[in-house]
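hiii so my PI (J.) wants the whole complex modelled not just the main chain, which honestly fair. so below is everything: two entries, each one labled with what it is. i double checked the lines twice but i was tired so who knows lol
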Amino acid sequence: MLSSMTLEQFTQALAAATPTPGGGSASAHAGAMAAALIQMTCDLTIGREAYRAHDEAVRAIRARSEGLRRDLLALVDRDAQAYDEVVRALRLPKETDAEKQTRSEALERANLFAIETPLATADACAALMGMAAELASKGNINVVSDVGTAALLAYAGLRGGILTVRINLKGDAGGARVAQLRERVRRLEVDSERLREEALTGAYVRSNGR
Amino acid sequence: MLSSMTLEQFTQALAAATPTPGGGSASAHAGAMAAALIQMTCDLTIGREAYRAHDEAVRAIRARSEGLRRDLLALVDRDAQAYDEVVRALRLPKETDAEKQTRSEALERANLFAIETPLATADACAALMGMAAELASKGNINVVSDVGTAALLAYAGLRGGILTVRINLKGDAGGARVAQLRERVRRLEVDSERLREEALTGAYVRSNGR
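here's the output for the full assembly
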């Protein structure tokens, strides 16, 4: 399990010239760190007199962040498993017609899993970017640099997840489902640029950035 | 030591409402993951016939990436230590003149350390962004999504490091040194946007992004 590795072991595993773990797992871990920083910011905001007006909004963000942190940690492992399944399917025998059929079905399932996994990472990170953008104005000002960092990590997780989706879509022949997925990632990309601007600008203004 | 924690423990520590670890350590870890993905890409490029023209350039990147990965892992720990020192200095007694003098000197040293540490993270990540931008055109096309992810993680580490520098500069009275530091982070920010564009565009074109 990658999530049970130390930071040092995990970066060594990423650096190794093996198929997994790769950018998909790293993206999910960036997202998990973003969720953690958002959770911390909420806990340092909730119940403080100066932020009472935002208490309800921040509590709602807090409740979602903990689940997203767990989901994204699970996606660190799942992304590697998904790619390993593609490799396994590619190695299935393909001599008889029955073998070809079995292999082709296994490959289709594995490819779909290898697309949906980083897409789940991208979706979770898009949600975190929205939460960071909101906290940039509503969170405790003393940790606004942590909120900005959370937005940046979620942005890396979102766009990194999308790059992994794109490369796994590449082998796909096309068709309506692929066109739909491409449109979905394109929208996520556009949203990510807007939210990055919003969260960074908010964090900069409040951290006295010049 | 944070770098000896598991990914799960580290994200839990980030999520805790304690002064450290925070965005500075998370930024350094994002950078360490970027360095790892760059190292992997180099090892999957060097010695391959299709990339022979770039062999020398990629070997040079490979040599630097391993050191940067180690440096950034060390910065995960050092960032937390630096902030802890600021907190310790703030708690020193300040009743007598001698105590005030000792405290003020300790605080100045600690503040400088708390600025220089995330600045070292930002510098290392800026170097990684340049390497990722170069690999986006020269690296093995099969792992171009990993190169793009590396650029995004290095971007998060760079801008996150700078946010931490900025918030630690905030308490500073100003003067020539602060003006110089502000100018330096401003240049890093401008460079980071250019390199992000360059690396992402390169990765997108080669991963057949539409």
